[in-house]
Write a structure and sequence with these properties.
The protein is mainly alpha-helical and 70 residues long. It has three helices and no strands.
C-alpha cells in the first residue's frame, strides 16, 4: 500500500485540504459507476483517487458558493 504525504498532495492541489476534498469527491464519483467494470477496481477507491491526483490525472475547478437570498 502506497502512502501519500500531505506535501505530495499539496504539490498537485494547492494545499492538502483541497487535495483531500478533490480525491474524496472523485472516489464518490467512481463509486457511482455502473458495476460493468468501466473503471478498474483492483484497489480501494480512495487509493485510486489519490494516485490519480498525485499523478496529475485529475483536473478540477474550484467554484465559489452562491449566497442564498433570505
Amino acid at each position: 500500500m502506497r502512502v501519500f504525504t500531505p506535501v505530495e498532495i499539496a504539490r498537485r492541489a494547492g494545499n492538502k485540504y483541497v487535495g483531500v476534498l478533490v480525491a474524496a469527491k472523485f472516489a464518490r464519483y467512481v463509486n457511482d459507476f455502473p458495476k460493468d467494470r468501466s473503471y478498474e477496481r483492483e484497489k480501494k477507491l480512495t487509493t485510486t483517487s489519490l494516485e490519480e491526483l498525485s499523478s496529475g490525472g485529475l483536473t478540477y475547478k474550484i467554484t465559489r458558493r452562491r449566497r442564498q437570498e433570505a
